[in-house]
Description:
The chain is elongated. It is mainly α. The protein has helices at about 1-10, 30-50, 55-65.
Amino acid sequence: MRITAILAAARSVPGRQWAGKTRKIWKYSATRKANTQKQFARVAQNVVLLESPAITYEQDFSHKKNMS
């Protein structure tokens, strides 16, 4: 009984098991790697789109002027 309690206590993580100082570490699989690469590619594409807007400031200003 005592050895079971000791072994069970060694595996448990106090508090939230996936966050914090004493968190469990995810196993890094091929699927997780692919998902991480997809996320990085998505972020990189968003940065590219945000750095180069579709219309310039002058075009935007004249468009707003023509609307009123």
